[in-house]
Backbone:
């Protein structure tokens, strides 16, 4: 999908389709008004016929509108003008893209970013149109021998601004939107890829490909032998049951001077989570191929960074492994020593995410990070707490948590804070080791974060649990690319400081 930006009048666009908004009740947006005037009142007439009254998400495609340069006009219902806010705006942009994709128009000129959205700038709207349109057209069809793509899919979109002076800032917004969309695209492809293809080795190759594509990015991969030498006993305990070798992937983005302390992103890369000896029930177990979506989001952010060239230093750490049962797999009751030296009693082999992350958090210290953010599909309990709308955020440094929440709000990739009070730590007590790897049923997302906090005590650290947001289940099964937008926004904000 290609995007460009231009200023000009709707009636003069030589395009396959002009997209304009219509408010409830049958009130034309500015761009629609101009088309109506040029076409001698045709739009008003059609609306009076009752085909559309502007309810949010309605669409109506008109062909051969007289005295208009475009071949088609797509009217998009926007609801009441004063009520137009973030979520509704995204929905109608998405509806317009889906609708156009089904028509013969392979290209369009959109005036939707000209609508006023409560409290949002023109740049914000442009970026959202790019990201939402790209996401609406995303398909994962690599493994279909006969692709189900539409006959003539939408390939190019021109974002229209009526004010020429808005062009420079608009171009920047477009570049940001496209970089984030590319990052989300990569994260979605990796997430959707089946676990027999997307192994730890495959993730390591993807990191190598990023390093090859962008001169600002370098990479390194630790093998199991290296992990042994380093002392990553917790990570290694998870991979025992797997025949695929584990990989510890390191990405470095250098956009600032060496003295600039980096942001370290740590992504959970369990390429398949069967639960191990504490095996999961078989219903929907296929979805555990998505258990590397934290890792995918880190790779996605690096993809965006490569394109955005932000003046920051960022390190990405991805412990990558499978979690499978085997005669040699870790067993409930096993005790392992983490890289930090702390011992862990593995009471449930299905709580493997924290075991690989804890060693990565300790490893992160050697970069003298300004902050560490880990991203993980860590707990089913997170879906019970927050559903599929918000990622959970927990951390030991309130300003960092605040910045992440703000970035979520701004990008539309939202997060919500859960408490990390000391009292919850008690649930991790073990009779035989320094701690257990599970804290019982109550507050499962919080006790998982408590476990991680013990490996980040000296650091400014936050944890994003994306179990409910990284993918959609059921017949809409698909990766979402979250939280690439949130994290990229966080880095954009940081670069602007
Ligand atoms: N990857 C899962 C968490 C998960 C489950 C994410 C379902 C999304 C949907 C994680 O490794 C896991 O199994 N967690 C356990 C922890 C428990 C054993 C303390 C869980 O949530 O049940
Ligand atoms: Mn698990
Ligand atoms: Zn897992």
Residues:
């Amino acid at each position: 999908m290609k995007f460009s930006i231009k200023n000009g009048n709707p009636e003069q666009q030589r395009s396959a389709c002009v997209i304009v908004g219509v408010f409830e009740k049958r009130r034309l947006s500015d761009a629609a008004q101009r088309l109506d005037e040029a076409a001698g009142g045709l739009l008003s007439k059609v609306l009076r016929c009752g085909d559309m009254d502007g309810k949010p998400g309605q669409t109506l495609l008109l062909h051969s509108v007289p005295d208009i340069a475009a071949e088609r006009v797509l009217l998009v219902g926007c609801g009441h003008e004063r009520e137009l806010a973030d979520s509704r705006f995204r929905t109608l942009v998405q509806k317009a893209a889906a609708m156009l994709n089904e028509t013969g128009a392979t290209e369009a000129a959109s005036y939707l970013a000209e609508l006023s959205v409560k409290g949002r700038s023109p740049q914000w709207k442009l970026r959202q149109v790019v990201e939402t349109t790209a996401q609406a057209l995303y398909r994962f069809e690599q493994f279909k021998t006969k692709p189900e793509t539409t006959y003539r899919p939408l390939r190019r979109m021109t974002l229209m601004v009526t004010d020429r002076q808005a062009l420079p800032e608009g171009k920047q917004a477009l570049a940001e939107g496209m970089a984030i969309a590319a990052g989300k695209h990569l994260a979605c492809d990796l997430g959707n890829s089946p676990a027999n293809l997307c192994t730890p080795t495959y993730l390591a190759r993807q990191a190598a490909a990023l390093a090859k594509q962008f001169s600002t990015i370098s990479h390194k991969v630790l093998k199991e032998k290296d992990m042994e030498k380093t002392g990553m006993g917790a990570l290694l305990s998870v991979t025992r049951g797997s025949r695929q070798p584990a990989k510890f992937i390191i990405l470095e983005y250098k956009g600032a001077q060496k003295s600039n302390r980096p942001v370290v992103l740590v992504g959970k890369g369990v390429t398949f989570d069967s639960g191990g000896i504490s095996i999961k029930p078989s219903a929907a177990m296929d979805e555990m191929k998505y258990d590397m979506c934290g890792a995918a989001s880190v790779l996605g952010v690096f993809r965006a960074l490569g394109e955005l060239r932000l003046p920051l230093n960022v390190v990405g750490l991805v412990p990558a492994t499978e979690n499978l049962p085997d005669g040699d797999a870790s067993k409930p009751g096993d005790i392992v020593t983490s890289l930090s030296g702390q011992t862990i009693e593995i009471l449930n082999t299905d709580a493997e995410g924290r075991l690989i992350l804890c060693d990565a958090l300790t490893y992160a210290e050697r970069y003298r990070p300004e902050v560490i953010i880990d991203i993980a599909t860590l707990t089913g309990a997170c879906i019970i707490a927050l559903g599929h709308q918000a990622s959970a955020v927990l951390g030991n440094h309130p300003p960092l948590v605040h910045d992440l929440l703000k970035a979520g709000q701004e990008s539309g990739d939202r997060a919500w804070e859960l408490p990390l009070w000391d009292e919850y730590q008690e649930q991790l007590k073990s009779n035989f080791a320094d701690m257990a790897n599970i804290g019982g049923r109550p507050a499962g997302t919080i006790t998982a974060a408590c476990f991680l906090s013990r490996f980040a005590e000296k650091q400014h650290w936050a944890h994003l649990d994306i179990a409910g947001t990284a993918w959609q289940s059921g017949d809409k099964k698909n990766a979402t690319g979250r939280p690439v937008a949130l994290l990229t926004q966080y880095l954009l904000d940081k670069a602007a400081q």
